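Quick one: structure tokens for this chain, please?
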Amino acid sequence: MDKKEFRSRELVRYDNGKVSPDPDNSDRTFVFNVPDPPQGKFAAVTDMNGPGAMIIYRDRHLGGAYKLHFTVFYVNGSGGPRAFFSSPDTLDRTTEANQQYRIDLLDPLARVDSLAKEDVLLNVFRTSPGDPNRLEPHALTVDLTSLRDRTVRLRLLAVSNRVPLRAGVDDIRLELIGR
């Protein structure tokens, strides 16, 4: 994953799963302990010292049938009683529990923070209540044939207002089908 390929707000590149890449902006009450980068020398992860919504996205024209490949992982707090997932259809982090990580393909004309059904073309990953508080690196492949010949916005989104949610991704790539 080339850091220059994405527009990002508050997602950081890291190379050591035991050391926060930005200690001044990391919650020191929850030790930074994420998997080392699954592929290569670095990956991307959210890290914060308070409630927030972190978004990374990129627009891409799919001039044919593609498969999307990526590796996803996360650590939701330290597993204590406040560490649980809640996935309301909002990014609001002030009125209710909102602890979620999702990866979507959006209409590129939609606001980058939209969760409206008409804007989300395809949800490819989403945490849900009851999910474990830690997911080790997990490779996923999604067939995007239904979106062929369209421009889409790939968006990675993490919202956290309970405990730090360190949501990570690595090795994002598109594969043209039928080459």
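Confidence is low (pLDDT under 50) at residues 1-9.
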